[in-house]
Write a structure and sequence with these properties.
Layout: H1 2-26, H2 30-45, H3 49-54, H4 57-63, H5 72-91, H6 95-109, H7 115-132
Helix pairs in contact: 1-2, 1-5, 2-5, 5-6, 6-7
Length: about 130
């Protein structure tokens, strides 16, 4: 029961943050949206965005494990934040960093069983590669 309440609160907070990020994106406030993603890393996952960007996926996974059990909800939230960050970076014309975010999201998603998101990220990576050739 307590775990279910925790998961529901986590999902609510994530949804609220994503609404805010999407609104900023629609308004063309890419930098503000990126800052909000950084705040969401901190507030929702307890992770510093700079650490997320430089750490290996296995180390990140270990940071957000709960008593040795992988928290798939947090992994999925982190992956979705990385994907949105990649989308925003593409808008800001930073394809190299966007691809890094997508690749990290893809690696995180490989730890859980959500294939639909993995396929979307793989498509984004292929599109970046096609533009660079």
């Amino acid at each position: 029961m307590i775990r279910d309440d925790y998961i529901m609160r986590l999902i609510e907070m994530f949804s609220e943050s994503m609404r805010k990020i999407l609104r900023m994106e629609r308004e063309g406030k890419v930098e503000e949206a990126l800052e909000t993603i950084g705040e969401t890393y901190r507030n929702l996952l307890g992770l510093n965005p700079e650490i997320v960007h430089i750490m290996e996926v296995e180390d990140i996974k270990n940071l957000i494990e709960y008593t040795g059990i992988m928290d798939e909800h947090k992994i999925q939230i982190l992956a979705k934040l990385l994907i949105k960050e990649g989308d925003l970076l593409l808008q800001a014309k930073d394809k190299k960093i966007a691809k890094q975010r997508y690749l990290k999201a893809l690696e995180l998603l490989s730890r859980i069983s959500d294939n639909s998101i993995k396929l979307q990220v793989e498509k984004k990576i292929k599109e970046i590669d096609a533009c660079q050739n």
